[in-house]
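Example for reference:
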Amino acid sequence: MSDERSWFGHPRGLTVLFLTNMWEQFSYYGMRALLVYFMTKQLLLGQAQASFIYGAYTACAYFTPIIGGIMVDRFLGKRRAVIIGASVMAAGHFMMAFEPLFYLALATIALGNGLFLPTLPSQVGDLYRRDDPRRGWAYNVYYVGVNIGGFLAPLLCGTIGEVYGWHYGFGLAGVGMLVGLAIYLSGQRHLPPEPARPAKSDAATPKGGFDRQTLLVLVGIGVAVTVFRSAYEQVGNTVALWADTGLDRQAGGFLIPMTWFQSLNPLFVMLMTPPLLAWWRRRADAGHDQPPARRMALGALIISASYLLLAGLAWSAGGHTTSWVWLALFFVAFTFGELFILPTGLGLFARLAPLNLGTTTVAAWFLITFTGSLSAGLVGSLWSRFEHGSFFALLAALAAIAAGLLWLLNPATENINKSKTKHIQPGEAHVEAI
Protein backbone atom coordinates (compact mmCIF):
# COMPACT_ATOMS: atom_id res chain seq x y z
CA MET A 1 0.00 0.00 0.00
CA SER A 2 1.41 3.38 -0.95
CA ASP A 3 0.30 5.33 2.13
CA GLU A 4 -0.51 3.93 5.59
CA ARG A 5 -2.35 7.06 6.70
CA SER A 6 -6.06 6.85 6.09
CA TRP A 7 -9.08 8.92 5.07
CA PHE A 8 -12.28 7.42 6.47
CA GLY A 9 -10.42 4.10 6.71
CA HIS A 10 -8.94 4.28 3.20
CA PRO A 11 -5.49 5.36 1.92
CA ARG A 12 -5.17 9.11 1.44
CA GLY A 13 -4.30 8.46 -2.16
CA LEU A 14 -7.98 7.62 -2.63
CA THR A 15 -8.79 11.19 -1.53
CA VAL A 16 -6.49 12.58 -4.23
CA LEU A 17 -7.97 10.37 -6.94
CA PHE A 18 -11.50 11.03 -5.64
CA LEU A 19 -11.10 14.82 -5.85
CA THR A 20 -9.23 14.74 -9.17
CA ASN A 21 -11.96 12.65 -10.70
CA MET A 22 -14.67 14.80 -9.12
CA TRP A 23 -13.42 17.91 -10.90
CA GLU A 24 -12.85 16.09 -14.17
CA GLN A 25 -16.45 14.88 -14.01
CA PHE A 26 -17.54 18.43 -13.19
CA SER A 27 -16.00 19.56 -16.47
CA TYR A 28 -17.46 16.66 -18.46
CA TYR A 29 -21.01 16.84 -17.08
CA GLY A 30 -20.97 20.63 -17.16
CA MET A 31 -20.32 20.53 -20.88
CA ARG A 32 -22.72 17.61 -21.40
CA ALA A 33 -25.59 19.40 -19.60
CA LEU A 34 -25.33 22.21 -22.15
CA LEU A 35 -24.47 20.25 -25.30
CA VAL A 36 -27.90 19.23 -26.68
CA TYR A 37 -29.46 22.57 -25.76
CA PHE A 38 -26.52 24.45 -27.32
CA MET A 39 -26.87 22.54 -30.57
CA THR A 40 -30.66 22.90 -30.84
CA LYS A 41 -31.04 26.46 -29.51
CA GLN A 42 -27.77 28.17 -30.54
CA LEU A 43 -26.52 26.23 -33.56
CA LEU A 44 -30.16 25.56 -34.63
CA LEU A 45 -29.51 21.92 -35.52
CA GLY A 46 -32.45 19.54 -35.88
CA GLN A 47 -33.27 17.20 -33.00
CA ALA A 48 -32.24 14.02 -34.81
CA GLN A 49 -28.92 15.53 -35.93
CA ALA A 50 -28.20 16.95 -32.46
CA SER A 51 -28.99 13.62 -30.79
CA PHE A 52 -26.72 11.77 -33.21
CA ILE A 53 -23.85 14.24 -32.66
CA TYR A 54 -24.36 13.93 -28.91
CA GLY A 55 -24.17 10.14 -29.13
CA ALA A 56 -21.20 10.20 -31.52
CA TYR A 57 -19.27 12.55 -29.23
CA THR A 58 -19.88 10.50 -26.09
CA ALA A 59 -19.03 7.36 -28.06
CA CYS A 60 -15.71 8.81 -29.23
CA ALA A 61 -14.93 10.02 -25.71
CA TYR A 62 -15.18 6.39 -24.58
CA PHE A 63 -13.45 4.83 -27.60
CA THR A 64 -10.18 6.71 -27.21
CA PRO A 65 -9.49 5.19 -23.74
CA ILE A 66 -8.81 1.74 -25.24
CA ILE A 67 -5.99 3.25 -27.32
CA GLY A 68 -4.93 5.44 -24.42
CA GLY A 69 -4.87 2.47 -22.04
CA ILE A 70 -2.45 0.59 -24.27
CA MET A 71 -0.21 3.66 -24.54
CA VAL A 72 -0.25 4.09 -20.75
CA ASP A 73 0.66 0.46 -20.01
CA ARG A 74 3.37 0.26 -22.66
CA PHE A 75 4.87 3.74 -22.97
CA LEU A 76 3.63 6.72 -20.99
CA GLY A 77 3.02 5.52 -17.46
CA LYS A 78 0.05 6.62 -15.35
CA ARG A 79 1.24 9.93 -13.92
CA ARG A 80 2.31 11.36 -17.27
CA ALA A 81 -0.91 10.15 -18.93
CA VAL A 82 -3.12 11.92 -16.38
CA ILE A 83 -1.21 15.20 -16.75
CA ILE A 84 -1.27 15.17 -20.55
CA GLY A 85 -4.88 14.02 -20.75
CA ALA A 86 -6.15 16.64 -18.29
CA SER A 87 -4.28 19.44 -20.06
CA VAL A 88 -5.65 18.47 -23.47
CA MET A 89 -9.21 18.20 -22.13
CA ALA A 90 -8.99 21.62 -20.48
CA ALA A 91 -7.93 23.10 -23.82
CA GLY A 92 -10.89 21.43 -25.52
CA HIS A 93 -13.37 22.82 -22.99
CA PHE A 94 -12.07 26.35 -23.50
CA MET A 95 -12.31 25.87 -27.28
CA MET A 96 -16.03 25.16 -26.83
CA ALA A 97 -16.45 28.87 -26.10
CA PHE A 98 -15.82 29.59 -29.80
CA GLU A 99 -18.52 28.36 -32.20
CA PRO A 100 -16.22 27.89 -35.26
CA LEU A 101 -14.13 25.46 -33.17
CA PHE A 102 -17.15 23.38 -32.05
CA TYR A 103 -16.29 20.08 -33.76
CA LEU A 104 -12.55 20.47 -33.19
CA ALA A 105 -13.24 21.13 -29.50
CA LEU A 106 -15.29 17.93 -29.20
CA ALA A 107 -12.48 15.94 -30.84
CA THR A 108 -9.87 17.51 -28.54
CA ILE A 109 -11.83 16.62 -25.40
CA ALA A 110 -12.27 13.05 -26.64
CA LEU A 111 -8.53 12.66 -27.29
CA GLY A 112 -7.54 13.95 -23.86
CA ASN A 113 -10.14 11.72 -22.28
CA GLY A 114 -8.46 8.72 -23.88
CA LEU A 115 -5.41 9.15 -21.66
CA PHE A 116 -7.15 10.39 -18.53
CA LEU A 117 -10.24 8.23 -18.15
CA PRO A 118 -8.77 4.68 -17.84
CA THR A 119 -5.70 5.77 -15.89
CA LEU A 120 -7.27 7.24 -12.77
CA PRO A 121 -9.50 4.27 -11.81
CA SER A 122 -6.65 1.83 -12.43
CA GLN A 123 -4.66 3.75 -9.80
CA VAL A 124 -7.43 3.12 -7.27
CA GLY A 125 -6.64 -0.59 -7.38
CA ASP A 126 -2.91 0.11 -6.98
CA LEU A 127 -3.59 1.56 -3.52
CA TYR A 128 -4.55 -1.83 -2.04
CA ARG A 129 -3.14 -5.28 -1.64
CA ARG A 130 -5.33 -8.07 -3.01
CA ASP A 131 -6.00 -9.33 0.52
CA ASP A 132 -6.94 -5.86 1.83
CA PRO A 133 -10.63 -6.03 2.84
CA ARG A 134 -11.13 -2.33 2.03
CA ARG A 135 -10.50 -2.80 -1.66
CA GLY A 136 -14.00 -4.24 -2.21
CA TRP A 137 -15.69 -0.90 -1.55
CA ALA A 138 -13.08 1.48 -2.98
CA TYR A 139 -14.73 1.79 -6.40
CA ASN A 140 -18.10 2.65 -4.90
CA VAL A 141 -16.39 5.40 -2.86
CA TYR A 142 -14.65 6.55 -6.04
CA TYR A 143 -17.98 6.52 -7.88
CA VAL A 144 -19.38 9.02 -5.37
CA GLY A 145 -16.67 11.46 -6.54
CA VAL A 146 -17.92 11.03 -10.09
CA ASN A 147 -21.38 12.05 -8.98
CA ILE A 148 -20.42 15.00 -6.78
CA GLY A 149 -18.91 16.53 -9.90
CA GLY A 150 -21.94 15.47 -11.91
CA PHE A 151 -24.25 17.06 -9.32
CA LEU A 152 -22.48 20.42 -9.18
CA ALA A 153 -21.90 20.77 -12.92
CA PRO A 154 -25.48 21.28 -14.18
CA LEU A 155 -26.21 23.66 -11.27
CA LEU A 156 -23.18 25.85 -12.00
CA CYS A 157 -22.22 25.36 -15.65
CA GLY A 158 -25.84 24.77 -16.65
CA THR A 159 -27.22 27.85 -14.89
CA ILE A 160 -24.42 30.11 -16.14
CA GLY A 161 -24.87 28.74 -19.66
CA GLU A 162 -28.64 29.29 -19.65
CA VAL A 163 -28.59 32.72 -17.99
CA TYR A 164 -25.37 34.38 -19.17
CA GLY A 165 -24.54 32.51 -22.36
CA TRP A 166 -23.59 28.99 -23.40
CA HIS A 167 -19.94 29.92 -23.91
CA TYR A 168 -19.49 31.01 -20.30
CA GLY A 169 -20.83 27.65 -19.14
CA PHE A 170 -18.34 25.82 -21.35
CA GLY A 171 -15.52 28.03 -20.04
CA LEU A 172 -16.39 27.17 -16.43
CA ALA A 173 -16.16 23.49 -17.35
CA GLY A 174 -12.58 24.10 -18.50
CA VAL A 175 -11.75 25.77 -15.18
CA GLY A 176 -13.00 22.67 -13.37
CA MET A 177 -10.62 20.49 -15.37
CA LEU A 178 -7.66 22.67 -14.37
CA VAL A 179 -8.67 22.44 -10.69
CA GLY A 180 -8.64 18.63 -10.95
CA LEU A 181 -5.18 18.67 -12.51
CA ALA A 182 -3.85 20.93 -9.75
CA ILE A 183 -5.17 18.55 -7.08
CA TYR A 184 -3.56 15.56 -8.79
CA LEU A 185 -0.17 17.27 -9.03
CA SER A 186 -0.24 18.43 -5.41
CA GLY A 187 -1.15 14.97 -4.09
CA GLN A 188 1.56 12.90 -5.75
CA ARG A 189 3.17 11.85 -2.46
CA HIS A 190 0.00 9.98 -1.48
CA LEU A 191 -0.20 7.92 -4.69
CA PRO A 192 1.43 4.51 -5.26
CA PRO A 193 4.73 4.33 -7.14
CA GLU A 194 4.57 3.85 -10.88
CA PRO A 195 4.45 0.07 -11.55
CA ALA A 196 7.19 -1.35 -13.74
CA ARG A 197 6.15 -1.81 -17.36
CA PRO A 198 7.20 -5.05 -19.07
CA ALA A 199 10.24 -5.02 -21.31
CA LYS A 200 9.73 -5.82 -24.98
CA SER A 201 11.39 -9.18 -24.46
CA ASP A 202 8.69 -10.06 -21.93
CA ALA A 203 5.77 -9.14 -24.17
CA ALA A 204 5.00 -12.74 -25.09
CA THR A 205 5.01 -14.14 -21.55
CA PRO A 206 1.71 -15.79 -20.59
CA LYS A 207 1.37 -13.86 -17.35
CA GLY A 208 0.39 -10.74 -19.28
CA GLY A 209 -2.51 -12.02 -21.38
CA PHE A 210 -6.16 -13.02 -21.21
CA ASP A 211 -7.23 -16.64 -21.11
CA ARG A 212 -9.95 -17.56 -23.60
CA GLN A 213 -12.72 -18.05 -21.04
CA THR A 214 -12.14 -14.69 -19.37
CA LEU A 215 -12.03 -12.93 -22.72
CA LEU A 216 -15.34 -14.49 -23.81
CA VAL A 217 -17.03 -13.51 -20.55
CA LEU A 218 -15.78 -9.92 -20.84
CA VAL A 219 -17.05 -9.73 -24.42
CA GLY A 220 -20.42 -11.11 -23.31
CA ILE A 221 -20.69 -8.55 -20.53
CA GLY A 222 -19.69 -5.91 -23.06
CA VAL A 223 -22.57 -6.82 -25.36
CA ALA A 224 -25.06 -6.76 -22.48
CA VAL A 225 -23.85 -3.41 -21.14
CA THR A 226 -23.86 -1.94 -24.67
CA VAL A 227 -27.58 -2.75 -24.92
CA PHE A 228 -28.11 -1.34 -21.43
CA ARG A 229 -26.30 1.91 -22.21
CA SER A 230 -28.40 2.53 -25.30
CA ALA A 231 -31.21 3.13 -22.79
CA TYR A 232 -29.18 4.49 -19.86
CA GLU A 233 -27.50 7.30 -21.82
CA GLN A 234 -30.84 8.84 -22.79
CA VAL A 235 -30.93 10.82 -19.52
CA GLY A 236 -28.63 13.43 -21.04
CA ASN A 237 -30.29 13.27 -24.45
CA THR A 238 -33.98 12.51 -25.02
CA VAL A 239 -34.98 12.63 -21.34
CA ALA A 240 -33.40 16.11 -21.22
CA LEU A 241 -35.45 17.12 -24.26
CA TRP A 242 -38.61 15.82 -22.59
CA ALA A 243 -37.75 17.81 -19.46
CA ASP A 244 -37.69 20.94 -21.61
CA THR A 245 -41.04 20.44 -23.36
CA GLY A 246 -43.03 17.79 -21.47
CA LEU A 247 -42.69 18.97 -17.88
CA ASP A 248 -44.39 21.63 -15.81
CA ARG A 249 -41.24 23.09 -14.23
CA GLN A 250 -43.00 25.58 -11.96
CA ALA A 251 -42.28 25.24 -8.22
CA GLY A 252 -43.87 27.91 -6.02
CA GLY A 253 -43.74 30.49 -8.79
CA PHE A 254 -40.13 29.64 -9.66
CA LEU A 255 -39.33 28.16 -13.07
CA ILE A 256 -36.78 25.37 -12.50
CA PRO A 257 -33.96 25.59 -15.09
CA MET A 258 -34.07 22.55 -17.36
CA THR A 259 -30.38 21.75 -16.77
CA TRP A 260 -30.97 21.37 -13.02
CA PHE A 261 -32.71 18.06 -13.55
CA GLN A 262 -29.36 16.66 -14.71
CA SER A 263 -28.16 17.10 -11.10
CA LEU A 264 -30.80 14.78 -9.64
CA ASN A 265 -29.06 11.57 -10.72
CA PRO A 266 -25.67 12.38 -9.10
CA LEU A 267 -27.41 13.83 -6.04
CA PHE A 268 -29.23 10.56 -5.46
CA VAL A 269 -26.00 8.61 -6.03
CA MET A 270 -24.42 10.53 -3.13
CA LEU A 271 -27.44 9.99 -0.89
CA MET A 272 -27.98 6.32 -1.72
CA THR A 273 -24.43 4.99 -1.82
CA PRO A 274 -23.64 4.94 1.95
CA PRO A 275 -26.78 3.02 3.04
CA LEU A 276 -26.52 0.69 0.04
CA LEU A 277 -22.87 -0.12 0.83
CA ALA A 278 -23.80 -0.75 4.47
CA TRP A 279 -26.56 -3.12 3.37
CA TRP A 280 -24.26 -5.00 0.99
CA ARG A 281 -21.63 -5.25 3.73
CA ARG A 282 -24.14 -6.76 6.18
CA ARG A 283 -25.24 -9.27 3.55
CA ALA A 284 -21.63 -10.21 2.82
CA ASP A 285 -20.89 -10.68 6.52
CA ALA A 286 -23.93 -12.94 6.75
CA GLY A 287 -22.70 -15.01 3.79
CA HIS A 288 -25.31 -13.70 1.33
CA ASP A 289 -23.15 -11.56 -0.95
CA GLN A 290 -24.64 -11.19 -4.43
CA PRO A 291 -22.53 -12.28 -7.43
CA PRO A 292 -21.44 -9.32 -9.61
CA ALA A 293 -23.24 -10.32 -12.82
CA ARG A 294 -26.47 -11.03 -10.94
CA ARG A 295 -26.24 -7.69 -9.16
CA MET A 296 -25.75 -5.99 -12.52
CA ALA A 297 -28.79 -7.79 -13.96
CA LEU A 298 -30.93 -6.57 -11.07
CA GLY A 299 -29.73 -3.01 -11.72
CA ALA A 300 -30.71 -3.22 -15.38
CA LEU A 301 -34.19 -4.44 -14.39
CA ILE A 302 -34.64 -1.49 -12.04
CA ILE A 303 -33.63 0.89 -14.84
CA SER A 304 -36.20 -0.82 -17.07
CA ALA A 305 -38.90 -0.20 -14.47
CA SER A 306 -37.94 3.47 -14.22
CA TYR A 307 -38.42 3.94 -17.98
CA LEU A 308 -41.79 2.18 -17.77
CA LEU A 309 -42.75 4.90 -15.28
CA LEU A 310 -41.91 7.58 -17.85
CA ALA A 311 -43.82 5.68 -20.52
CA GLY A 312 -46.91 5.59 -18.31
CA LEU A 313 -46.61 9.30 -17.56
CA ALA A 314 -46.25 10.22 -21.22
CA TRP A 315 -49.23 8.07 -22.22
CA SER A 316 -51.46 9.40 -19.43
CA ALA A 317 -50.52 13.06 -20.05
CA GLY A 318 -52.27 13.07 -23.43
CA GLY A 319 -50.13 15.89 -24.80
CA HIS A 320 -50.23 17.96 -21.61
CA THR A 321 -47.26 18.68 -19.36
CA THR A 322 -46.43 16.50 -16.36
CA SER A 323 -45.35 17.69 -12.91
CA TRP A 324 -41.59 17.81 -12.42
CA VAL A 325 -42.04 15.74 -9.24
CA TRP A 326 -42.58 12.64 -11.39
CA LEU A 327 -39.23 13.15 -13.09
CA ALA A 328 -37.60 13.39 -9.67
CA LEU A 329 -39.20 10.06 -8.73
CA PHE A 330 -37.93 8.59 -12.00
CA PHE A 331 -34.40 9.58 -11.05
CA VAL A 332 -34.76 7.92 -7.62
CA ALA A 333 -35.49 4.55 -9.25
CA PHE A 334 -33.04 5.14 -12.10
CA THR A 335 -30.18 5.93 -9.73
CA PHE A 336 -30.88 2.96 -7.49
CA GLY A 337 -30.52 0.67 -10.51
CA GLU A 338 -27.40 2.46 -11.71
CA LEU A 339 -25.61 1.77 -8.42
CA PHE A 340 -26.16 -1.95 -8.90
CA ILE A 341 -24.67 -2.11 -12.38
CA LEU A 342 -22.07 0.55 -13.24
CA PRO A 343 -19.60 0.56 -10.29
CA THR A 344 -19.98 -3.23 -10.10
CA GLY A 345 -19.08 -3.61 -13.77
CA LEU A 346 -16.03 -1.35 -13.49
CA GLY A 347 -14.85 -3.28 -10.45
CA LEU A 348 -15.40 -6.61 -12.18
CA PHE A 349 -13.24 -5.59 -15.14
CA ALA A 350 -10.52 -4.38 -12.76
CA ARG A 351 -10.60 -7.69 -10.89
CA LEU A 352 -10.19 -9.73 -14.07
CA ALA A 353 -7.24 -7.65 -15.32
CA PRO A 354 -4.13 -9.71 -16.23
CA LEU A 355 -0.72 -8.73 -14.90
CA ASN A 356 0.62 -5.51 -16.46
CA LEU A 357 -2.63 -4.90 -18.35
CA GLY A 358 -4.55 -3.12 -15.59
CA THR A 359 -5.09 0.16 -17.43
CA THR A 360 -5.87 -1.58 -20.71
CA THR A 361 -8.52 -3.79 -19.08
CA VAL A 362 -10.16 -0.85 -17.33
CA ALA A 363 -10.06 0.95 -20.69
CA ALA A 364 -11.99 -1.98 -22.16
CA TRP A 365 -14.83 -1.13 -19.77
CA PHE A 366 -14.90 2.37 -21.25
CA LEU A 367 -14.81 0.88 -24.74
CA ILE A 368 -18.18 -0.63 -23.82
CA THR A 369 -19.33 2.88 -22.98
CA PHE A 370 -18.23 3.83 -26.52
CA THR A 371 -20.39 1.18 -28.16
CA GLY A 372 -23.25 1.94 -25.78
CA SER A 373 -23.07 5.68 -26.38
CA LEU A 374 -22.99 5.18 -30.14
CA SER A 375 -26.04 2.95 -30.00
CA ALA A 376 -27.69 5.48 -27.64
CA GLY A 377 -27.17 8.19 -30.24
CA LEU A 378 -28.85 6.04 -32.88
CA VAL A 379 -31.73 5.18 -30.55
CA GLY A 380 -32.06 8.85 -29.54
CA SER A 381 -32.44 9.87 -33.17
CA LEU A 382 -35.80 8.01 -33.12
CA TRP A 383 -37.24 10.41 -30.51
CA SER A 384 -39.05 12.61 -33.02
CA ARG A 385 -40.40 9.58 -34.93
CA PHE A 386 -42.01 7.86 -31.93
CA GLU A 387 -44.81 8.91 -29.65
CA HIS A 388 -43.05 9.70 -26.36
CA GLY A 389 -44.67 6.94 -24.33
CA SER A 390 -43.74 4.35 -26.95
CA PHE A 391 -40.16 5.62 -27.04
CA PHE A 392 -39.78 5.25 -23.27
CA ALA A 393 -41.30 1.75 -23.49
CA LEU A 394 -38.63 0.91 -26.07
CA LEU A 395 -35.93 2.03 -23.61
CA ALA A 396 -37.51 -0.16 -20.92
CA ALA A 397 -37.37 -3.15 -23.26
CA LEU A 398 -33.69 -2.56 -24.07
CA ALA A 399 -32.76 -2.43 -20.37
CA ALA A 400 -34.75 -5.64 -19.73
CA ILE A 401 -32.91 -7.43 -22.56
CA ALA A 402 -29.60 -6.38 -21.00
CA ALA A 403 -30.75 -7.77 -17.64
CA GLY A 404 -31.52 -11.15 -19.22
CA LEU A 405 -28.10 -11.34 -20.89
CA LEU A 406 -26.29 -10.51 -17.65
CA TRP A 407 -28.27 -13.12 -15.74
CA LEU A 408 -27.27 -15.77 -18.31
CA LEU A 409 -23.60 -14.78 -17.95
CA ASN A 410 -23.60 -15.11 -14.17
CA PRO A 411 -22.48 -18.81 -13.91
CA ALA A 412 -19.48 -18.31 -16.18
CA THR A 413 -18.52 -15.08 -14.40
CA GLU A 414 -18.64 -16.80 -11.02
CA ASN A 415 -16.43 -19.66 -12.24
CA ILE A 416 -13.77 -17.20 -13.38
CA ASN A 417 -14.00 -15.20 -10.14
CA LYS A 418 -13.42 -18.33 -8.08
CA SER A 419 -10.50 -19.34 -10.28
CA LYS A 420 -8.90 -15.90 -9.94
CA THR A 421 -9.24 -16.00 -6.16
CA LYS A 422 -7.62 -19.43 -5.89
CA HIS A 423 -4.70 -18.69 -8.20
CA ILE A 424 -3.39 -15.26 -7.21
CA GLN A 425 0.25 -15.18 -8.27
CA PRO A 426 3.02 -13.76 -6.07
CA GLY A 427 3.80 -10.19 -7.07
CA GLU A 428 0.57 -9.86 -9.04
CA ALA A 429 -0.49 -6.28 -9.65
CA HIS A 430 -2.77 -4.80 -6.97
CA VAL A 431 -5.71 -4.13 -9.24
CA GLU A 432 -8.97 -5.40 -7.83
CA ALA A 433 -12.34 -4.03 -6.95
CA ILE A 434 -15.85 -5.14 -6.25
In short: Residues 75 and 197 are 8 Å apart (CA to CA). The first strand starts at residue 6 and ends at 7. Residues 8-193+208-422 form a domain with the Growth Hormone; Chain: A; fold (CATH 1.20.1250.20). Confidence is low (pLDDT under 50) at residues 201-206, 423-434.
